[in-house]
Amino acid sequence: MNSSSLADHPRPASLTDLFVSFTLLALQGFGGVLAVVQRELVEKKRWLTREEFIEEWAVAQVMPGPNVVNLALMIGGRYFGLRGALVALAGMLAVPLVIVLLLGLLHAHYASYPGVAGALRGMAAVSAGLIAATGLKLAGTLQSHPLKLPLSLFFCALGFLLIALLRVPLLYVLLGLGGISCVLTYRKLVR
User: By three-state DSSP, how is residue 111 classified?
Assistant: First the structure.
């Protein structure tokens, strides 16, 4: 990204702002933070455009480690270099780590209660719904993708089929479909 596009939209005011923002994002994202991160960083804070978010999220997904942690590192690094990346990482991990440890202790004590199992299943369903809603909200950016909407939707459907129905490991799908789509996109961009 060039420096003029960085100046075109708001940015974190300080390292403290970056830390607090990513801590609050992490605390809102039980079971998955894609929906929360997209809403906060694109719609509310406007640190990224929708297209920038899609690009950064795509890179974050193919890097090893949790997607949102990778995204935090990239955004922190974008605005404040290595210090920003480390501060964003600390924001994503510090307070949630303490909460997870406490919840782990509580779960170990109350796991045998049927209500606890039911509550966890309910939270998983809500999380899946949030992820699906965010995917639909971001699908509009596929219209401006070099591969065009029909081919992009084909890759999405094929990825779903391979992972959800045929149980192909995610790594193979990412390498296979991701590699093919990257090559096709590159060819379109070069033309």
Answer: coil
What pLDDT, on the 0 to 100 scale, is given for residue 2?
Answer: 45
DSSP tag of 112 = T
Instruction: Give me the percent of the chain exceeding a pLDDT of 70.
Output: 94
Mean pLDDT across 124-128: 79
In contact, 63 and 70? CB cutoff 8 Å: yes
Please, which residues have CB within 8 angstroms of residue 8's CB and are 6 or more apart in sequence?
none
C-alpha span between 42 and 143 (Å, rounded): 18
Q: Is the dihedral of CA 58, 95, 130, 144 positive or negative?
A: negative
Give the residue among 63, 48, 53 at the shortest CA–CA distance from 12.
48
Instruction: Give the span between the Cα atoms of 186 and 173, in whole angstroms.
Output: 19
CA angle 66, 70, 76 (to 5 degrees): 145
User: CA-to-CA distance for 14 and 106, rounded, in angstroms?
Assistant: 36
Euclidean distance between CA atoms 83 and 69, whole angstroms: 15
Give me the amino acid identity at 186: Y
